[in-house]
Design a protein that fits this description.
Elements: H1 2-29, E1 60-67, E2 77-84, E3 92-96, E4 105-107, E5 122-128, H2 130-144, H3 160-170, E6 194-195, E7 202-207, E8 211-216, E9 220-225, E10 228-233, E11 238-241, E12 245-247, E13 253-255
Parallel strand pairs: 5-13
Antiparallel strand pairs: 1-2, 1-5, 2-3, 3-4, 6-7, 7-8, 8-9, 9-10, 10-11, 11-12
Organism: Erwinia typographi
Protein name: DUF3750 domain-containing protein
Length: 258
């Protein structure tokens, strides 16, 4: 049918153009294409997180994403969450990592805002003060209730993006908007294909994270085909594209009230 051919050609064109843009970004940064060993890759602070000592009396919650290590960074990102309560002088960092332990949930695996094996992180959520203080107990509970603490699959999930998406669903106040190239964020078991999107507000239909549709307050409209997402961010106008995540103005969910 003609309409099916048009949709197929359009989908392939978006895939190729998005991948080309991702490759150009990687070539410019030099991270994904150098063949650098993970043991030698940069992991120092990116100087993005606030000083927890200077802001010791302020509760803070932040979420970061960075391209995954090596050539995989052409396709997907790795996310993590950091937080501290009022009165604390250090951040706690949580994420899912596939190697090194039977339990894939890691606490303080590296610096709060450290380069992810050579890739500079991007801040996507920043809540401070009373808003952050109110959500931290729910975040801690969500970490404990993650359904797959001993399972990791790069595709279609569960993986590091599935973990952050779980926290976002459990804590809608976080207003989490994982980018379109956060492969695994839409993973859902076959027994529960319908529910909340990662932002915790809206609706998502997803079959194992390989085919689905998301209508979310933060995500806008997003279609998932074989784990590759494309759509439109309505709230903060931009295109949501595979490989590159977002085409349009940058977006950081913030609440910096005291």
């Amino acid at each position: 049918m003609v309409w099916l051919k048009v949709i197929t050609v359009g989908f392939l064109c978006v895939m190729l153009l998005s991948f080309g843009q991702s490759y150009l970004r990687a070539a410019h940064s030099g991270v994904a294409l150098t063949g650098q060993s993970w043991s030698d890759a940069r992991r120092d602070s990116a100087q993005l997180a606030p000083d927890p000592v200077a802001l010791s009396q302020t509760a803070i919650v932040q979420v970061y994403v960075a391209p995954t290590f090596g050539w995989r960074g052409l396709f997907a990102v790795h996310p993590w969450i950091i937080f501290k309560k009022a009165g604390e002088t250090r951040f706690s960092r949580y994420e899912v990592v596939s190697w090194g332990s039977d339990n894939v949930i890691r606490e303080d695996y590296t610096l709060p805002d450290g380069y992810w094996f050579g890739a500079k992180p991007q801040l996507i959520v920043d809540h401070r003060g009373s808003a952050a203080a109110a959500m931290i107990p729910a975040i801690e509970a969500a970490i404990k209730s993650y359904p797959w603490p001993h399972t990791y699959r790069v595709w279609p999930g569960p993986n590091s993006n599935t973990f952050l998406a779980h926290i976002g669903r459990e804590v809608p106040a976080l207003r989490l908007d994982l980018p379109a190239n956060a492969i695994g964020k839409d993973f859902r078991p076959l027994s529960n294909p319908l529910g909340l999107p990662p932002s915790g507000r809206g609706v998502q239909l997803s079959i194992l994270g390989v085919l689905g549709l998301t209508l979310g307050a933060e995500e806008g409209i997003e279609v998932n085909i074989l784990g590759l997402n494309m759509g439109i961010d309505v709230k903060s106008p931009a295109l949501r594209l595979p490989f590159i995540g977002r085409l349009g103005p940058g977006k950081v969910e913030t609440d910096l009230a005291g």
